[in-house]
Design brief:
165 residues, alpha/beta, five-stranded mixed sheet, globular
């Protein structure tokens, strides 16, 4: 698929970057410590964690995967599981100096009708892998106690494209 040369890649990357920025602001305002684009390579498994968050009072690590669009549910869940497993084994301790008591997982998507429809169509799978949503998830982010698995929709509108007076 092509669209205006490299413009499509730049558009998707810009949306991803906006969502990362919004998530960073949200998590920091709630007291989380953050590391961004945490890379790993372990026995052939390679990648990066968009946001690795740490809640010191409970020694809870939070692996945040941000998608500008949900294309493959299976690939997203598989890669997120890999990142959580490696965070438990070593990544969190290497980054924050302590072994986590628990590791939670969070998928962040843009709050659009299209992404909500995609989640709804795959909810038979997503509800099993990432069941916590909405108010319960936002409450947990303010006071995490145990690990959760959830999806958070974040609005990323008016990123310089809207008109103002």
């Amino acid at each position: 698929m092509s669209w205006r040369g490299g413009d499509l890649d730049r558009f998707l990357d810009a949306r991803h970057a906006r969502l990362v920025g919004i998530a960073v602001n949200l998590l920091r305002s709630l007291g989380w410590q953050l590391e961004l684009e945490v890379t790993y390579s372990s026995f052939g498994e390679r990648g990066s964690i968009d946001i690795l968050a740490w809640w010191p009072p409970g020694r809870i690590a939070l692996v945040v995967e941000i998608k500008s669009e949900l294309v493959s549910v299976e690939a997203t869940l598989r890669k997120l599981d890999e990142k959580v497993r490696l965070t438990i084994e070593s990544i969190a301790e290497n980054r924050f100096g302590e072994r986590p008591r628990a590791v939670a997982r969070l998928l962040i998507l843009p709050d659009t009708t299209t992404e909500r429809r995609r989640v709804s169509r795959a909810d038979h799978v997503l509800a099993a892998g990432l069941p916590v949503r909405g108010t319960a998830l936002r409450r947990w982010l303010r006071h995490p106690i145990e690990p959760i698995r959830g999806i958070l929709f974040l609005a990323d509108t008016n990123a310089g494209g809207g008109r103002s007076r």
